[in-house]
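2024-03-11 09:14:02 DEBUG pipeline.ingest accepted 1 chain
2024-03-11 09:14:02 DEBUG pipeline.ingest length=284
2024-03-11 09:14:03 DEBUG pipeline.predict start
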Amino acid sequence: MTAWADHGEAGNGEPLAIVLRPGNAGSNTAADHIEAARLALAQLPGRLRRRVLVRADSGGGTHEFLTWLTAKSRRLHYSVGMTITEAVAEAIGKVPAQAWTPAYDGDGQVRKGAWVADITGLLELDGWPAGMRVIVRKERPHPGAQLRFTDIDGHRFTAFATDTKRGQLADLELRHRRRARCEDRIRGAKDTGLRNMPLKGFAQNQVWCEIVALACELLAWTQMLALAGTARRWEPKRLRLRLFAVAGRLVRGGRRLRLRLAGRWPWTGQITAAVTRLQALPSG
């Protein structure tokens, strides 16, 4: 189980916790979610720990995890996926047609064939944290997509819970859906060594996870500090191909050490610009 700090669309993301779990661990084990969140929060500066939005998939939509997040001593905010249960499906069926508002695509523009609605008032939320809202997204599956058992009337539904009281429903749903950037971070971590556990012992492989997390963090901050534009979002494979594996030569002369790169390499300019940015950073 992993937890990541999202640097937004203009950057990458850094790992805050990678918790190695047994192979038979459940997807919605609240104790593991709490442990991962606790370790992740401990990595943040104290001044930021009360300004955190915790996003999780439907595995995090449990009573225990949300109760832990909403403890007064933490002052955290959340946006977690919820399973489409029979009660949720029944509530969806009661939503008036005029209550559905257009949803947004990844660029924040209205998406045709997708809508969102707030079904909080149609659910019995006894036992859930006070102030919790449940928002549902409805969309037509793209042509050729196979329908699932949870699809209702030919539409695909997803639901999430949040404690955010203000904002347009489409904005809140888009904010939650951007949690999918975590999947990109996990894919990058697999390319950095997380795909296979090379050692025999559980504790040894936990150390391996820490090494992978350190490598991912170095990559993330290298991109944030040294690179610009789309290069900040390059994944490890592309970074290795374009920047890290470039042929070069160290040359000494005039009491200076110089790195010479091939002028024909398409990304030589980005490499030299990255070095210049790093040299301009204040020391300490």
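2024-03-11 09:14:41 DEBUG pipeline.report Residues 92 and 217 are 42 Å apart (CA to CA).
2024-03-11 09:14:41 DEBUG pipeline.predict end
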